[in-house]
Amino acid sequence: MRIDKLLANMGYGTRKEVKKVLKTGIVQIDGEPVKDAKAQVKPEEQVVTIHGDVVHYQPYIYLMLNKPKGVISATEDEEHETVIDLLAYEHALFQPFPVGRLDKDTEGFLLITNDGKFSHALMSPKRHVTKTYVAVIKGEVTDEDIVAFNEGVVLDDGYLTKPAHLKILSQAAISEIELTITEGKYHQVKRMFEAVGKKVTELKRKAIGALELDSTLKLGEYRELSEEEYELLMERD
Ligand code: URA
Q1: Could you tell me the distance, in angstroms and rounded to a whole number, from the CA of residue 90 to the centre of ligand 1?
Q2: What is the Å distance from ligand 1's center to 223 Cα?
Q3: Domain boundary assignment for the chain
Q4: Which CATH number fits domain 131-208: 3.90.226.10, 2.60.40.10, 3.30.70.1560, 3.30.930.10?
Q5: Share of the chain above pLDDT 90, in %
Q6: Does 181 contact ligand 1 (Cβ within 6 A)?
Q7: What separation in Å is there between the alpha carbon of 192 and the centre of ligand 1?
Q8: What confidence tens digit (pLDDT) does each residue in 117-131 have?
Q9: Are strands 199-208 and 107-113 parallel, antiparallel or unpaired?
């Protein structure tokens, strides 16, 4: 594999950052300095060091799942099927876990990984990674709701939500909306609509940050993230 990929996967920064580190000449493969980001390395056989410190290779996986309803966002459950049960053996053996959670009755984009740093970076409230949902709402969603969500609404436990961007896709007794939020409180979208007297009847996550769910993935299907997609998620704003 490429040295820049190995270092980025091991948490030494994004591919761009790792490229800069390589240019400084502090990275060695089997004692030889390597500056070329494209240089090939066999991590199982060769010793990679940064400033003399050995880089311990542990393969990470990053999966994009189109979660169906009825499965839970956990690694194990005695009663219900979990998102990990949807994975092929070749992926499950990496012992991955879901990045955050979607409710049992929510569909859509769920990331699954075994990289704790990646998961932490996406979940950290400091990074404000956006999550975009589409939903069917019982009740007429109005321009007042757009304003209320933008200013923040008070949830049932007294929490004032951060500004959220609400777009009305269709407006009637049953409405369709798109909502982008920057936080992930328990049942957040459902509780935000409850705060304005409406009820979410269908919920699907369509994007995390700038990355959209691959529309070719059917419910229950998943695929590995491309390097570009990984970078897109890890880019700092
Ligand atoms: N908000 C919810 O209410 N449920 C989810 O699954 C995700 C966001």
Answers
A1: 29
A2: 22
A3: 3-54, 62-125+214-234, 131-208
A4: 3.30.70.1560
A5: 84
A6: no
A7: 10
A8: 999 999 998 889 999
A9: parallel
132 lines ligand 1 (CB under 6 A): no
Tokens linked to 106: 């929510």
Chain centroid offset of residue 167 CA: 22
Region of poorest pLDDT, from 56-60, 82-86, 184-188, 194-198 = 56-60
CATH top class, domain 3-54? alpha beta
Query: Model confidence at 15, in pLDDT bands (50, 70, 90)?
Result: confident
Please tell me if the CB atom of residue 189 comes closer than 6 angstroms to any atom of ligand 1: yes
The answer to whether 123 and 87 have CB atoms below 8 angstroms apart is no
CATH of 62-125+214-234, one of 3.20.20.80, 3.30.70.580, 3.40.50.80, 3.40.190.10: 3.30.70.580
| Tens of pLDDT, residues 149-172 | 999 999 999 999 999 999 999 999
Active-site residue set: 103
Compute the distance between CA of residue 226 and CA of residue 104 in angstroms, rounded to an integer. 27
| Mean pLDDT score, 63-91 | 96
Q: What is the pLDDT of residue 236?
A: 65
Give the residue ranges of DSSP H helices in 74-226.
Answer: 89-92, 116-123, 143-151, 188-195
Helices (H), the chain: 3-9, 15-23, 89-92, 116-123, 143-151, 188-195, 227-234
pTM: 0.81
According to the model, what pLDDT value does residue 11 have? 76
- For residue 176 the two structure tokens come to 């369709």
